[in-house]
Write a structure and sequence with these properties.
The complex is a heterodimer of chains A (289) and B (154). With 289 residues, chain A is mainly α. Chain A folds into 2 domains: 155 residues, Orthogonal Bundle (Globin-like); 111 residues, no CATH class. Helices cover 74% and strands 0% of the residues of chain A. Chain A is built from 10 helices and no strands. In chain A, α6 runs antiparallel to α10 and α9 packs antiparallel against α10. The relative contact order of chain A is 0.09. The C terminus of chain A is likely disordered. Chain B has 154 residues and is mostly helical. Chain B has a single domain, classed as Globin-like (Orthogonal Bundle). The chains are: A mainly alpha (289), B mainly alpha (154). At the A-B interface, α5, α6 and α10 of A face α5 and α6 of B.
Chain lengths: 289, 154
Amino acid sequence: MSGSLKLVNLIESHAEPIARQWARDVKKNPRTPSYHHLPEETLVPMAMRFYDHFKQMFFTDRPADVSRQYFARYAEEHHGRNIPLDEALYALIMMRRHIWLYAEFQTIFISAVEQKHAVDSLVRTILMFDYAILFISRRYQELIRQRIEEKLGVVNVLRMESPQGAKLGPYRGPIMAAFLLGALALTYYYHAVLGTNVIFTHLLYIPVVLAAIWWKKRGVLVAAALGGFLLLSHLVYLRGMPFTDDVIRAAMFLVIGGVVAFLSEGVARAEEMCRALPMAGGEHQAGLY
Amino acid sequence: MVASMKLIDLVENHAERIAAQWSMLVVKNPFTPFYHGRQPERLVPQAVRFYRNFRKLFMEPKPVEASDGYFTSYAEKRYREGVPLQEAVYALILMRRQIWLYAEFQAVFSTAVERQQAIESVTRTMLMFDYAVYFITKRYGELMKLEWFEAPNT
């Protein structure tokens, strides 16, 4: 372990030039396009933070525990800048490579003993990076999940699903029944009393859309029922008027209901996948291997 | 490069044995809970495939292209199996570690010259794994996006 001190000291005393070399490299590497537009003043501190923590993570007896926090923060910072996971990891890999490039340039491992130190340092660095990849990937998954849940928040209120709309869920049936009764009454009033078929049918889209959001494909049945009732009512009360308008309206109920159901299924599936993303596993110990 | 031949030969000749050891490890490693409770024998083939491809990946003059093809396919298979990203990568890391544990056990690198060869082999293996991590995470990201934004049930 003490043999690795040379490397650690090199990083500590040359953190800034190594970080600057990394920043220049990451700004033009084809695998890290998200970093290309970031200014060097933003990038250098990112790498400096890593090099500053290097000693602590390198020498600890519990590398998993010590590195977890740092790499979780690394993930948060890079995710916050909308950097994809593959690029964030590759940028970190480049930070590691720059340590070795710098060490090679400074020729710190020349003699046979130093070569042995090089192997020790290499193995220790690899162990740290194995944890880095694990913790960063895991934190990214959590952050992606959080972001999706936030975006789905408003949609979930409308869907009356958890977490935001969970309390309203049981009222879907009664609400839809009320809408349907209203729609039937409205249809009867316009067709039988006023003898017209204008305007009011737009209001029927409310139950059509809500049913498709709530019950997806099954919700299209509401559109079919309303369309059927509209046509039946027309046949009974509006015999002298052209039938085509209401046929088109009924067909549009089905189309709109179908499209919304399709989208609602997509949202539900995305949410399901998002929920299926694994959260942090059990607590882990260092020295498992 | 020639110095690393010893490691490549070892991996190729003992692929099944190293894969079996890996499978025993991955089913109980706390970082790979997805694999817990699975039959180790059923996991062996994926590690054997990796070890059999090791020479090709290791010796390839264009490591990026070779890694891209193999690890992208690895990502797709693990994604279809439902393995979480970090576990798919960590399982691969365990495969790599298992090579070194086996090599150490077999005392492949004991003399001074062989130690120098060990450095070369570690460096080369790490290069391969750098690309592996990149291509696997990239492909997982693409697959997640595809699945989330494609039409359902397609």
